[in-house]
Amino acid sequence: MALGRLISNRFTNEKGNDIYVRAKEEPIGGVPGILLYIAGPDSDSEMHVTRQEGLELLAVLSKLLKTGRRSA
């Protein structure tokens, strides 16, 4: 079985916190999936989504972030 691709990044967010994000291809019940992980100084979160769910999440975030508006 081939290993899924893994992409990760570390950055400092708007609040000055160090953040680590990771996305790894990992099947869910025999269908293509993605394991998402995000960690900051006070918490971490993991979410396993199907490929289609990942594409829909990407589309929603892309639309939201394209507005160029920033909250205070």
Q: Major sheet, described briefly?
A: 4 strands, antiparallel
On the 0 to 100 scale, the average pLDDT is: 92
User: What is the number of strand segments?
Assistant: 4
Number of continuous helical runs: 1
What do you see in this structure?
The structure is a single chain. The protein has 72 residues and is of the alpha+beta class. The chain has one helix and four strands. It has one domain. Helix content is 22%, strand content 40%. The longest helix has 16 residues.
Topology:
Layout: E1 6-12, E2 18-25, E3 33-39, E4 44-50, H1 51-66
Antiparallel strand pairs: 1-2, 2-3, 3-4
Task: Please describe the structure with a list of short key phrases separated by commas or semicolons.
4 strands, globular
Quickly describe the structure.
With 72 residues, this protein is of the alpha+beta class. It is 22% helix and 40% strand. Strand 3 and strand 4 form a beta hairpin.
